[in-house]
Write a structure and sequence with these properties.
about 400 residues, mainly beta, four-stranded mixed beta sheet, 2 helices, 35 strands
Length: about 400
């Protein structure tokens, strides 16, 4: 029965109509047989209770069903319901107020895909007369008042860490009328009068919506609004739907970042100076990041190699200096003997080395080959130098 309650969208019961030699107009009528069940136990609800507590509204007119069969539990029938051909623009609210069960509201629509009666092509198919019975069956599920509506807790995460101060929306999954897709002709509980909710995650990235504020059997759309975390702009990849009463009530919502560098906790280089350019003889390479970083062990592990000069590099061969705000990294060659001669093109090439986003100090990210610029290009470690 869980599948029947996965969606809380309004159901449109599409009927393939057929006719006879009698006159067929847009004023034809249908019958709707309703089977009603306890949403927890699956047991049919007493037909006599349905006949008194189930109502179909046709505009301002209110229609109550009759018992389909005194020997058949949970079955009633609405007779003479107006129907449309092809268009299906008649939509009728169906409400239930049954003792012992929570109030229920859904919608039904009747239509026929038989266009023959509209285009004058006749009332037969291959010369055979057609029947004149227009009918549909719908199943509804009512929750008992004794059923405890669960609370729903969501933990918002990014990169394995909880995200605080994220606004989580828990809204009824409103939508257009849709044809039932699971083959069971369920008339889903409507959501038109259900309250939309909003809450902010705590320091643990958690937010809870109390069961007392939720409508049992209704599907809610859970959405996390864009939020900045660790200097990275985050967003939810796609909203998820939660059917209250049947869905898991403790869920994790992963976020993704909106900036370049998705695989690196949102890290990318906003500016790289002197790469592949002609500069003075210090051979410096300056990289500016979008979020604060820290150097990993051993000065970040950067190395340098020179070509086209008579200079000799020391050990370590590169010096890495990070500004106090963690945003700008400057690499310079560690000369044991500074160069005095230069054979163009003379270069210093930086390699190795890694940094970590301050929010994720345990995750080392290689600067060369992994971190990219804002346009997605790899950072070049080659600096062209000339005599000062």
């Amino acid at each position: 029965m869980g599948k029947r309650l996965i969606a809380a969208m309004v159901a449109c019961l599409a009927v393939a109509g057929c006719g006879s030699d009698e006159k067929k107009t847009n004023g034809d009528e249908y019958s709707l047989t309703v089977f009603a069940y306890d949403a927890v136990t699956g047991a049919p609800i007493a037909s006599a209770d349905l006949a008194k507590g189930l109502v179909l509204y046709e505009g301002a007119d209110k229609t109550q069903p009759t018992v389909l069969d005194t020997t058949l539990a949970g079955a009633v029938i609405f007779k003479d319901v107006p129907a449309d051909y092809a268009h299906g623009n008649k939509l009728y609210p169906i409400l239930a107020n049954i003792a012992g069960y929570l109030p229920y509201q859904g919608y039904v629509s009747f239509s026929t895909n038989d266009n023959n009666f509209n285009n004058g092509s006749g009332d037969t198919v291959t010369g055979l007369p057609r029947d004149d019975l227009f009918a549909q069956v719908g199943n509804i599920y009512l929750f008992p008042v004794s059923f405890q509506t669960p609370s729903y807790t969501f933990t918002v995460m990014y990169g394995g860490l909880p995200v605080p101060n994220a606004v989580v929306e828990f809204d009824p999954a409103r939508g257009t009328v849709t044809t039932d897709t699971d083959g069971s002709d369920v008339i889903w509980a409507a959501d038109g009068h259900v309250q939309a909710l909003s809450a902010t995650t705590n320091a643990s990235g958690k937010v809870t919506f109390a069961g007392s504020s939720l409508a049992l059997g209704v599907t809610y759309k859970v959405t996390v609004l864009p939020v900045a975390f660790g200097g990275v702009q985050l967003s939810q990849n796609s909203p998820g739907n939660v059917a209250v009463g049947t869905a898991i009530n403790d869920q994790v919502i992963p976020l993704t970042d909106l900036a370049p560098g998705t695989v690196n906790h949102g890290l990318y280089a906003t500016n790289v100076t002197d790469a592949n350019g002609t500069i003075a003889g210090d051979g410096a390479l300056v990289i500016t990041f979008n979020v604060p970083v820290v150097l990993n062990a051993n000065n970040g592990g950067f190395a340098a190699a020179q070509a086209g000069t008579n200079g000799v590099l020391n050990t370590p061969s590169a010096i890495a200096v990070l500004t106090a705000d963690g945003l700008t990294l400057k690499l310079t060659p560690n000369w044991l003997t500074p160069p005095t001669t230069f054979t163009p093109p003379s270069t210093v090439t930086y390699s190795g080395g890694s940094v970590s986003v301050q929010t994720y100090p345990a995750d080392a990210i290689a600067v060369f080959g992994t971190v990219t610029t804002a346009t997605g290009n790899a950072i070049s470690g080659v600096v062209t130098i000339k005599a000062p």
